[in-house]
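Re-run with default settings, no changes from the original entry. Doing this only to confirm the output is reproducible before filing.
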Amino acid sequence: MRFEKEIRILISEALKSLYDIEYSSSDILLQETKKEFVGDLTLVVFPFTKQSKKSPELTAEAIGKFLVGKQSLISGFNVVKGFLNLEIQDKLWFDYFKKVSSDSSELFDPAKAYSDKVRSGKLMVEYSSPNTNKPLHLGHVRNNLLGYSVSRILRAAGNEVSMVNLINDRGVHICKSMLAWQKFGNGETPQSAKMKGDHLVGKYYVLFDKKYKAQIASLLERGLSEEEADKQAPLQHEVQEMLRKWEAGDPETIELWKRMNSWVYAGFEETYKALGVEFDKIYYESETYLLGKEIAAKSLEQGVFYKKEDGSIWIDLTDVGLDNKVVLRADGTSVYITQDMGTAQLRFDENPGLEKLIYVVGNEQDYHFKVLKEIFRKLGRPWADGLYHLSYGMVDLPSGKMKSREGTVVDADELIAEIVEQAEMTTKAMGKLDDYDSEEARKLYHDLGMGALKYFILKVDPKKRMLFNPAESIDLNGNTGPFIQYTHARIKSVLSKGKKVLGENPEFQDRKMSTEEKALIKLIYNYPDTLQAAAENLSPALMANYAYDVAKSFNHFYHDHVIVDENEKETSAFRLRLSELTSAVIKQSMSLLGIAVPERM
């Protein structure tokens, strides 16, 4: 039951009847009426004034009167300049509520909510994509949470979605950690260091940079230029040699690489579990870069790529406003774009019918993904336009920008531990956990802490750069995850009380709704629209802020009305059912963000 479709048909009839304007109902745009005006849906009438030959106000007035005269959907209207605000009859809102309260599938099943609109696409979302030379940090946290939530939203909207990870497990940056451990590690292991494996490897990545900078400084003191110092630094030569040995399959280098990567994978797994994210498949750069090199070689033969005198292979993209791009170095080693070429080809080969491959990667890689798409366009791949970069803004802290080489990043594990600890302190201060056993309490602290972290990050539009403030994220008031989680627990408490007074599934009759009740029903009605918009825009922020609006609306309703009253059983039955449906909407919305909501607090 979607009112917009029927109203668009009526508007189309009005335009034909009043002004002899032929306008398809599917082309008529309706939007939710702004909160400062009375109404449910708003029609912008400016597109019709040229043919109506009347002012926007008179055009809107005539359409409004036509719709009210139909005595079906519209109970009233008002005109604000060129905007026609329409009020849907209260009975229709009540009938809608009765229908979804008895069968919520029309609310949560996209095929029923949008029988004329939903299409099931085959999509793949790549997120996380860490390097095996360092632990996950705050930037990775936004990446993982965004990718996981986008995947869940796309699935809920009716698509077939594969969630994948690409581990960047090879390359010069990996060799830096390996070389530093080999030269300075003295056989140290995660067990001997009592340190997570990804943290241990990250320690040697930072150490390499420190030693390398010391060598550069020494060469500069001897009068060399920065360029000369960079070329002559011993560590630079050694790390390039290690990369060549790796690509040549040198057994000792490969054994060291496997050992150190295994430490990192064990560490990553712990962090992923704490974040509550998962993948359907994990790809490894070490297994795809050779395919990229093959593509480069074949494309060179076909004349799509060209070779320079030093033996390096390039592609000219200047005709599409980009630069010349190297795809293989002079020594035959690959670059980032090489493995991305191989991985993209492999994914479309393995997944017939795949329509879109969505890369969740920070906006500092915008140019990289433009290049990747243009390469495959020039190679004539039919799926080239299906490569989509979900570009998101960086995460800043009150203290400034993070730098991994210098070891100044905000470690993901430390961040998770800190925010869960803050959730514990905040919850204990409320003094409501006396009847919790220790395991229940630990789960609650974790759920609240992760709810705070995830919501604070996901409520921001992905394209925007954001400032993360842990203390602000855990606040039980305002637009935060814990506020919504607490609201859900409050509803569950009300429902528990209601069942004791009225029993299971009490009946209710048609009744006049209060302003707060109608506002809640309208928000519940908006769930499918919000889900579709979040899926189309790849924006969990739409879902997050919707959940907040629902929680905020329920709290207004809770504050202004007695929900359970023994002397008003029919009213209580209606309000309990409304509360129950509200809790279901909050739970489902937060689930799409990867956030658990507690049954009690």
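The longest helix spans residues 197-221. The two ends are 36 Å apart (CA to CA).
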